[in-house]
Design goal:
Elements lengths: L5 H11 L1 E3 L7 E5 L4 H15 L4 E7 L15 H16 L6 E6 L9 H15 L4 E7 L6 H16 L3 E7 L2 H4 L15 E5 L4 H9 L2 H7 L1 H5 L5 E7 L6
Parallel strand pairs: 1-7, 2-3, 2-5, 3-4, 5-6
Antiparallel strand pairs: 6-8, 7-8
Helix pairs in contact: 2-3, 2-7, 3-7, 4-5
Length: 244
């Protein structure tokens, strides 16, 4: 695939995606590498599910400690600030606080966890998935051009393969959509089962949830945020992975 602007890429993804006419009543677990990925990638879907009374759990894998401007000193309270923002954002989307989990793995180092921590992460996710007989799991795209996002996807795929739950696995693109250049080594074959969900009924709710991330949105800039402010959300459905 040729390189293209983020706006053009989003347009191409939307053009190729099959529309989903309604969301299901199946419970959801959204796994986010960082506090804000869940709202950017599938905040509308979360809000639609919660409007229907469907259980939604949000799991934040990293502690968010890397969420500050490059070249500056990390604010001493950045982890606490991002947790507070995450609880506000997920609350706006309708997720009860008891359904939000913070796993506190080190931000920017999810792909470098030692084997003990990696296995512990997979075990925690597996236990979370096993709480439901049927489940939809949403996680960042497996080639999302960010080491933490890709590592989170790998952990989720392994946990899904080990889970006793009947799981449908979906991926949501984040960095792919805003980096400005689409890497040439990505192919349309990386987007099988591409779907789009209209979030028009809850669009304003998602925008309010985004605004909860005050520590991040000023740093990210308008071009970044516009990627996630549309009335469609994009997902890739993956086959259930086989147990390793």
């Amino acid at each position: 695939m040729n390189t293209c602007t983020s706006a053009l890429l989003t347009a191409q993804l939307l053009k190729r995606a099959e529309p989903v006419l309604s969301v299901s009543q199946v419970p959801v677990v959204v796994v986010a590498p960082h506090e804000d990925d869940e709202t950017f990638g599938c905040g509308g879907l979360i809000a639609l599910k919660r409007q229907l009374g469907v259980p939604v759990t949000v799991v934040f894998v990293s502690d968010g400690g890397g969420g500050y401007q490059e070249g500056t000193t990390a604010p001493p309270d950045i982890v606490a600030v991002r947790e507070k923002e995450a609880l506000e954002a997920t609350g706006v989307l309708g997720v009860p606080v008891e359904h939000v989990q913070f796993l506190h793995y080190p931000d920017t180092r999810l792909g470098k966890l030692d084997e003990v921590d990696r296995r512990r992460l997979v075990s925690t996710l597996t236990e979370c998935f096993n709480q439901h007989a049927q489940l939809e799991v949403y996680v960042t795209h497996q080639r999302d051009l960010h080491p933490d996002h890709e590592a989170t996807c790998r952990a989720v795929m392994e946990a899904v393969s080990r889970s006793s739950s009947q799981v449908r696995l979906f991926e949501y693109p984040i960095w792919i959509r805003w980096m400005g250049k689409f890497h040439r080594n990505l192919q349309w074959s990386d987007f099988p089962g591409l779907i789009k969900v209209s979030i028009a009924p809850v669009h304003a709710t998602k925008l309010r949830a985004i605004q909860a991330y005050t520590s991040q949105i000023g740093m990210l800039g308008r071009a970044h945020l516009r990627c996630y402010e549309q009335v469609w959300e994009i997902f890739v459905e993956r086959p259930r992975p086989h147990q390793p």
